[in-house]
Amino acid sequence: MSMNDTFYHLPVLLNECIAALNLKAGGLYVDGTLGGGGHTEAILKHEPHCRVLALDADLDAIRFATERLKPFGDRVTIRQSNFRQFRQVADELKITAIDGLLLDLGVSSFQLDASAKGFSYRLDAPLNMQMNDHESFSAYDVINGYDEKKLADIFFQYGEEKNSRRIARKITEMRRTKPISTTGELVSIISATIPERFAKKTLSRIFQAIRIEVNNELENLKTILTDATAMMNSKGRLAVMAYHSLEDRIVKDFFKTEASNVIMDENYPELSKEKTPALKIITKKPMVPSEKEMNVNPRARSAKLRIAEKL
Ligand SMILES: C[S@@+](CC[C@H](N)C(=O)[O-])C[C@H]1O[C@@H](n2cnc3c(N)ncnc32)[C@H](O)[C@@H]1O
User: What is the pTM of this model?
Assistant: First the structure.
């Protein structure tokens, strides 16, 4: 796929995200996962008097979306940055308050189809999986550097993979002869370890686990949720779309903790203290795409949108 392709990524739950943000004139919204710019473009069109600060770690996304969003001039500010650094970016831009945050987590269709990134088990590529190619740590380091237990732990925790130990053992055995350097080699090792009928599911779970580890995805998510909530104006909204259960659980737990009026002490419940809640949960259950959207866009299938409002 080339940068000239008009198709980069089909935005998921687009109308629902726009409604979730409760856009208002004069508002400043943060899109932490710009990607192809589909959601940001819709925000800018829907509320002609708002501004957007958009971040993405991936240079291809930045280039594509910068071109796409040119018609909006200085209503949109785009920065190549990991969203965990949102606070620093805001400081540099002298932003002290925001009116909404949108996160559409994971990788874009473009990234999945860009073979050089190594995100997809369907395409042979070097073991990379970095959202930002300039980071020094890659999937190669995980697969060739982690000991057997650590590998098994990340496959189990981040991939929820039952055969984690067996797969980790096989990887460490195979890399003794020579390092594993491509996704193709990793796919054949995993495929030789499990029955064929489970292959696809297992491969996608293992690839997901490695991606989460390489990019420290779960910690980054907690960081931006905390920082954006602290900077959010009253009635500002957080709209977060997750694509797997671990991410969704982090969002759910964060909203729950921030919406609660007690700080729970798990070990000594009698020591729990009262606090002022920061958020109100808008979606008791996450919103999911309609059958129709899932049919048009299979990548929407696992999306879960949760919304909360700053009090
Ligand atoms: C699913 S896509 C977003 C698609 C976008 N909403 C659109 O309409 O085109 C996710 C994007 O978030 C970026 N991303 C994921 N985690 C990130 C992080 N921690 N910091 C910055 N960007 C991140 C990826 O590089 C990818 O471009």
Answer: 0.94
